[in-house]
Amino acid sequence: MDQQLLRSYYATIYEFPTRRGIVRASLDGEEIKDVGELPELLQTDFAVLTAYNPRSMLLPRRVNESRHLVMRDLLILGVYRVEPCVGFEAEKKESVWREPAWLVHGMDREEAIAFGRVFRQNTVIYAHQGRPEIIVTDPTADDVGRTYECNWRVRA
Prior knowledge:
Layout: H1 3-11, E1 13-18, E2 21-26, E3 46-49, H2 61-77, E4 81-88, E5 98-105, H3 109-118, E6 123-128, E7 131-136, E8 147-149, E9 153-155
């Protein structure tokens, strides 16, 4: 995987909805010994999936939105609780890039990978018991299936 692209995945800030408000987090944190210190959501199992811009190819807004809604409908048909979230490259005021995604509660790791492959995504984010990972899902990549371990960094 291109190292610059991988660095951008680690640094992406995600806004996740919770009952207590928005949790902002990225994947570039220090190792956490006690995941109980994390916000409740980040201690659970979930996937972050998007259908936008397959293989980093910029598509027209209307096409991206249609693909994204199809993904949501398939996830709901799969009986998943799905909530919108967003990833962006920097603090809101400075960010040029923002990509809508779905926070998919309780999804199995292998199914998250399958969704990434079907929608031609470079990677998916999967979190299990407070431990997130970036998983390469692009079947054309040399390192398809490779996992990059991460740590949550809660942002203010």
